[in-house]
Design a protein that fits this description.
The structure holds two protein chains of two kinds. By secondary structure, chain A is an alpha+beta fold. Helices cover about 40% and strands about 20% of the residues of chain A. Chain A has helices spanning about 30-40, 45-60, 65-75, 75-115, 120-125, 125-130, 150-200, 225-230, 285-310, 360-385, 405-430, 460-470, 525-545, 630-639; strands at about 205-210, 215-220, 235-240, 245-250, 255-265, 270, 320, 325-330, 335-340, 440-445, 470-480, 485-495, 500-510, 520, 555-560, 565, 575-580, 585-595, 615-620, 625. A six-stranded antiparallel sheet of chain A has the order 15-16-17-18-19-20. Chain A has a five-stranded antiparallel sheet with strand order 6-5-9-8-7. In chain A, helix 11 runs parallel beside helix 13 (about 525-545). Chain B has a single domain (about 1-265), classed as Hypothetical Protein Pfu-838710-001 (Beta Barrel). Helices cover about 25% and strands about 30% of the residues of chain B. An eight-stranded antiparallel barrel of chain B has the order 1-5-4-3-2-6-7-9. The longest helix of chain B is centred in the C-terminal third of the chain and has 17 residues, at about 235-250. The two termini of chain B are about 25 Å apart. In chain B, about 20% of the residues are buried. Classes of the chains: A alpha+beta, B alpha+beta. Chain B: One of its GO terms (biological process) is termination of RNA polymerase II transcription. Chain B: One of its GO terms (molecular function) is transcription coregulator activity.
Chain lengths: ~650, ~270
C-alpha cells in the first residue's frame, strides 16, 4: 500500500529466489551477476523493501531461516573481521576484473573505429594497443545472416504473439484493477465530501488543510474565545477507508463535560444544575460528535474563565480549589462550581429532584453561559474596532463578568429583603401604636439603562448590557408630616467601582429638621437613619394629635433629634416626654421637670421619683401592647 | 504618534476577490466607509515671521529667536479634515429639493435622511512627510489626529492659519487585523460645478454622479499601524514586524510595499 508502483516488480512472487540448497556457495561475482540478472539493478533496493521481502518469504515458506544467522552470531569478532576483509578483497578483485574487461572492450571498439576516424579513435586507445597494432588494422563488415528455417520463423512468430497476448492481458487486467480502484476511491471521496458539505451546511466553519491530504478542519470554538480554546476548537474530519466521516478530536477530550452549578443553603446542597439534553438520538452520528466536542470545549472554556474571574474575586471571599470554585453569595447561600463528566451516574443525585428545586442552580448555570457568549460577542465587537496605538505595554485582558452579575443580584436581593423586613417591622410598630403612617412602596431591580449608542445595538445585546449594569431598588414612602416623603435607593454592583452595595437616603420635606443623610455605606447606618427620620416624623404627628384635646397646652419639641418634647403652657410645671423608637418598640416616657435653664431648652435632670415616671410601650413582637392607645396616653399626660 | 504604512494597488477586477480574502483573513465583515476629505493649506499670516533680525546680536538671543522663527516659518503643511458620511447622505435631489422637503409638513421622515452639514462631525488629520532614510521597508511618518467641532469647520481652520483648498470623497472598506487597519479604498471626485473650490459643499450629490479619480477604477489597499511612541525602537520594530508578517500572508494576493516618500509629501511649497 505504501510503496510506490515502480517497486512493485521486486515484490512479485515469481521473482522469488528458488530455495535450492547448493553444495558450494557461489562466488561473489557470480552472485552479483545472478542478482543483476534476476532482480535488476541494485539502485532500487533499500532496506524497507528487503525487510518486506524477507517477511513475505517467511510467510510463504514458513521455514525459519534463522539457522545461518544464529551461526553467524556465534562467530567472534576477529573472525568476522577477517571475513569482511576477504569479502572486500573479492569485491575489489571483481571490480578490477570488470575494469579490465571494459578496457578491452574499449580498445576493441577503438581499433575497429580507427579505420574510419583514426584521430578520434587514437585518443581512447590504450598505449599498449597503439604499440602492438597499427591504426586501421581491423575492419568490420555487415554479413547477411543465414536464412532461418520456416519452422524457426513460425516458432518465433508464435512466441512473440504469445508474449504480446500475455502482455495485453496483464495490461488490461491492470487497467481494470485501476479502474475499479479509482471507482471505489471516487465513491468514497464523494461520500466524504458530501458529508463534509452536510456538516458545512449546518453552519460549521470548515477549512481545508493543505499539510495533510484528505483532511479538512472545522472549528467548534468561537473565534472570539481565548486563544488556547480557539485553537483547541479545531478538529479535523478524516476519511475512513469507505469514505465515512471520522472526527479526529485531537485535543478535545473524549467524554462530554459540563460546569455544574450547585447551590448550598446552610450545610446541605439544595439544588444542582443538570447538563443540557442532547437532541440527537444517534450517539454515533458525526453531528452528535461535533456537537459534543463543541459543548466540551465551550464548557472547558467556561470553567477556565470562571476560575480566572474567581481569582480576581478573591477579595469578595471567593475561593478556588483544585477542582471547584466556592462563592459565598449571601448569608447562608453558597454557590459551588465544578467541571464534571456529564454522563457520570454517581452525580445523578440532583437529577431526580423536581425542576422547581433546581430553578436557582439551573438559572445560574444558564446565566453564566449566556454571559460567556455575550463576552465573546463583545470581543468580536472590540476586535473589529480601529485599534488603539501600539505601546510597549501589554494590553490587559480583563476577566469576563460571569459570576459577578449573579452575585450582585444575590447580594442585592438579600440586602433589599433585610431592609424590607426592617421597614415592615418598624411600620408594624407604628401601626400598632395607632399611627396611620402611609405604607411604603418598593420598586425592585431597576436597571440603569444607558443611552444606546449610534447605531443602536441589537435588542439582545441591550438586554444583556442592562443585566451587567448596577442593580437598583428604590423604597418610597410618605411621612405623616404633610408634603413629606422619603426615598431609599439601594444600588449594588460588582463590576465597576464603587463595588458592593451603597444606599442613598433622601427626604423631601418642607420642615427644616429633616435633612437628607445622603449616601451611606452600611446597613446599620441606613437603619439608624430610617429610625431617625421616622422618629422625627412621629414627633410632629404627636404634636398634631395632642394639641387638640387640651387647648392651650401643647407639646413643644425641644430636642427633636433626640425625641424629647416638653409640655409647655403651665408656668412652673413642666412635663418632659421622651419618645424612642426602635425596630421592635415605640416607647414614651413622661416625667416632670422642675425647671428650665435660662436658655429655655436645656432641661435639667429632674429629681424625679420613680412613681412619677409614666411609661407607655408598644412592642408587638413581645406582645406587650399598652391597653390604652397612644393618643389616650398622651392626652392623659397632657391634662 | 507614528504611523507605519504599506500600500498595494488593487485592480478593479481583483477587488471583489480581495474583499473576500481579507474577510477570511481578518474573520470579520468589511466595514464600509465613506469619508469626506477637505484639504486645507497653511498660509503665512502677514506680519508673523516678518521681523528680520539684525546681524549683531548676542548668541543667546539669536538662538532663541532662530528657534521661534523656524517654528513659525519652517513647516507649512497641508492637512486634511475628515468627516465620515453615510451612503444615504448622498441625495440624488439637489439643494432645492431639500428646501422643499423641509418646508412641507409631515415629511419629516423623508428629510431625516437628508444630509445635514451642521451636524457633520470632523476630525483633523495631520500627516508629516515620511521619514527619510529608514532602513526598514515600511513607510513611517509622524501623525496626529484631533477631533473638531461639528458643522462648518472653515472659520475655525482659518483662525488657525489654514485655508480651504479642495475636497474629495474616499470610498472603501475597512478591516482590522490585530493591530493593523486594512483600508481598501479609492478616491471619488465631485462632479464639477460652478462654485468649486470656494468652500466645502453643504449638500452632497448622488453617489452615482461621483467620478472615480483613477479612471481604471482600481483601489488602493493601505495597511496601517499606529505607534504611540515613535522614539521607542522596540515598538517600532514590533510594528514593522507585524506589517511584514501581513505582507507575507498576502503575498499571493497583493504585493504590499512602501510608498515613494516624496509622493506622500504634505509640505506646502
Amino acid at each position: 500500500m505504501g510503496i510506490a508502483p515502480s517497486h512493485g516488480r521486486l515484490l512479485h512472487p515469481s521473482l522469488r529466489v528458488t530455495a535450492e540448497k547448493k553444495d558450494q556457495p557461489d562466488t561473489l561475482p557470480v552472485e552479483i551477476a545472478q542478482i543483476n540478472e534476476q532482480w535488476g539493478s541494485f539502485r532500487d533496493v533499500n532496506e524497507d523493501i528487503l525487510q518486506a521481502k524477507i517477511a513475505q518469504e517467511q510467510e510463504q515458506n514458513g521455514a525459519p531461516p534463522s539457522d545461518e544467522e544464529a551461526e553467524e552470531t556465534d562467530l567472534d569478532t576477529a573472525e568476522r573481521r577477517d571475513r569482511l576483509y576477504k569479502k572486500r578483497n573479492e569485491i575489489i578483485q571483481f571490480a578490477a576484473q570488470s575494469h579490465t574487461e571494459a578496457m578491452f572492450a574499449l580498445d576493441f571498439v577503438s581499433l575497429l573505429l580507427s579505420k574510419h576516424a583514426p584521430r578520434q579513435a587514437e585518443t581512447s586507445m590504450s598505449p599498449f594497443l597503439k604499440q602492438v597494432a597499427p591504426l586501421g588494422s581491423l575492419n568490420g563488415e555487415v554479413v547477411n545472416p543465414p536464412a532461418k528455417s520456416e519452422a524457426a520463423l513460425n516458432d518465433i512468430a508464435t512466441v512473440s504473439r504469445g508474449w504480446r497476448i500475455q502482455n495485453f492481458n496483464s495490461a488490461s487486467s491492470k487497467l481494470l484493477d485501476a479502474a475499479s480502484r479509482l471507482d471505489s476511491e471516487v465513491t468514497a471521496e464523494s461520500r466524504y465530501w458530501n458529508e463534509v458539505l452536510a456538516v458545512k451546511a449546518k453552519g460549521w466553519k470548515i477549512a481545508g488543510c493543505h499539510k495533510i491530504v484528505k483532511h479538512s478542519e472545522f472549528s467548534t470554538a468561537s473565534l472570539e474565545a481565548t486563544p488556547i480554546f480557539r485553537d483547541r476548537g479545531l478538529a479535523s474530519l478524516r476519511r475512513s477507508a469507505d469514505g465515512a466521516l471520522l472526527l479526529d478530536k485531537g485535543l478535545i477530550p473524549a467524554g462530554s463535560r459540563f460546569v455544574r452549578v450547585r447551590v448550598k443553603e446552610g450545610s446541605n446542597i439544595s439544588s444542582s444544575s443538570r447538563p443540557s439534553e442532547q437532541n440527537s438520538s444517534n450517539p454515533d452520528s458525526v453531528e452528535y460528535q461535533i456537537l459534543q466536542a463543541r459543548d466540551s470545549v465551550f464548557e472547558e472554556e467556561l470553567y477556565h474563565e470562571l476560575v480566572r474571574e474567581a481569582r480576581a474575586m478573591a477579595p469578595s471571599g471567593v475561593t478556588v480549589r483544585q477542582d471547584h470554585i466556592r462563592v459565598p453569595a449571601s448569608d447562608d447561600l453558597e454557590i459551588l462550581l465544578d467541571l464534571v463528566d456529564s454522563n457520570d451516574e454517581s452525580l445523578g443525585c440532583g437529577r431526580n429532584s423536581s425542576d422547581s428545586e433546581n430553578l436557582l442552580a439551573d438559572g445560574l448555570a444558564h446565566s453564566i453561559r449566556i454571559l460567556l457568549a455575550f463576552a465573546h460577542r463583545q470581543n468580536l465587537h472590540r476586535r473589529t474596532q480601529i485599534p488603539s496605538p501600539l505601546t510597549g505595554k501589554k494590553r490587559p485582558n480583563p476577566e469576563y463578568p460571569l459570576l459577578r452579575p449573579a452575585l450582585a443580584y444575590f447580594q442585592h436581593l438579600s440586602y433589599v429583603r433585610r431592609l424590607e423586613s426592617f421597614l415592615r417591622d418598624i411600620y408594624g410598630v407604628l401601626h400598632k401604636a395607632g399611627l396611620e403612617t402611609p405604607d411604603f412602596t418598593i420598586s425592585s431591580f431597576i436597571n440603569e439603562s444607558k443611552n444606546p449608542g449610534h447605531p443602536a445595538p441589537p435588542t439582545l445585546e441591550v438586554l444583556l448590557q442592562n443585566s451587567l449594569s448596577p442593580v437598583k431598588s428604590v423604597f418610597r414612602g410618605d411621612l405623616l408630616s404633610s408634603g413629606s416623603s422619603f426615598e431609599i435607593t439601594v444600588r449594588t454592583t460588582l463590576l465597576a467601582p464603587p463595588l458592593g452595595t451603597a444606599y442613598k437616603v433622601t427626604v423631601n420635606s418642607p420642615a427644616p429638621d429633616f435633612k437628607s443623610p445622603g449616601p451611606l455605606g452600611l446597613r446599620e447606618e441606613v437603619e439608624a437613619a430610617i429610625i431617625h427620620i421616622l422618629l422625627l416624623d412621629v414627633r410632629p404627628a404627636d404634636e398634631d394629635q395632642k394639641a387638640t384635646p387640651a387647648e392651650g397646652h401643647f407639646w413643644e419639641p425641644v430636642y427633636p433629634h433626640l425625641g424629647e418634647l416638653v409640655l409647655a403652657g403651665q408656668p412652673r410645671k413642666y412635663k418632659k416626654m421622651k419618645v424612642s423608637l426602635s425596630r421592635h418598640e415605640l416607647s414614651l416616657s413622661v416625667h416632670r421637670v422642675r425647671k428650665f435653664d435660662a436658655l429655655g431648652h436645656g432641661g435639667q435632670e429632674p429629681e424625679s421619683q420613680p412613681s412619677r415616671l409614666h411609661v407607655w410601650i408598644c412592642n408587638p413582637s413581645e406582645g406587650t401592647t399598652a391597653e390604652s392607645s397612644l393618643i389616650d396616653f398622651v392626652s392623659s399626660q397632657t391634662s | 504618534m507614528h504611523e507605519l504604512l504599506l500600500f498595494a494597488s488593487v485592480p478593479q477586477h481583483q477587488h471583489h476577490e480581495l474583499l473576500q480574502q481579507l474577510a477570511g483573513l481578518t474573520a470579520m465583515q468589511p466595514r464600509h466607509a465613506l469619508e469626506r476629505r477637505l484639504i486645507f493649506k497653511a498660509y503665512r499670516k502677514p506680519g508673523l515671521g516678518a521681523s528680520r533680525t539684525g546681524g549683531s546680536q548676542d548668541l543667546q538671543a539669536s538662538g532663541d529667536l532662530q528657534r521661534v522663527t523656524k517654528m513659525l516659518n519652517g513647516g507649512m503643511f497641508y492637512t486634511q479634515v475628515v468627516g465620515p458620511v453615510a451612503e444615504n447622505d448622498f441625495s440624488p435631489s439637489g439643494p432645492d429639493a431639500d428646501v422643499q422637503m423641509s418646508g412641507t409638513e409631515g415629511n419629516s421622515a423623508g428629510s431625516a435622511g437628508a444630509y445635514d452639514y451642521e451636524q457633520q462631525p470632523w476630525r483633523l488629520e495631520f500627516r508629516d512627510v515620511p521619514e527619510a532614510g529608514t532602513r526598514s521597508a515600511v513607510t513611517a511618518r509622524v501623525m496626529a489626529t484631533a477631533a473638531l467641532p461639528c458643522g462648518d469647520v472653515v472659520p475655525a481652520m482659518n483662525a488657525w492659519g489654514y485655508h480651504f483648498v479642495t475636497e474629495y470623497v474616499v470610498e472603501g472598506d475597512m478591516f482590522t487585523y490585530g493591530d493593523i487597519v486594512l483600508f481598501l479604498h479609492r478616491v471619488l471626485h465631485y462632479p464639477s460645478t460652478s462654485l468649486e473650490d470656494k468652500e466645502p459643499r453643504k449638500h452632497l450629490p448622488a453617489l452615482s454622479e461621483m467620478s472615480v479619480m483613477e479612471k481604471s477604477g482600481s483601489y488602493v489597499l493601505q495597511a496601517s499601524m499606529t505607534v504611540l511612541d515613535g522614539s521607542n525602537q522596540e515598538t517600532m520594530k514590533t510594528a514593522s514586524r507585524h506589517l511584514f508578517a501581513l505582507r507575507e500572508k498576502l503575498r499571493s494576493a497583493v504585493k504590499l510595499e512602501m510608498a515613494d516618500r516624496l509622493s506622500l509629501d504634505t509640505r506646502a511649497k
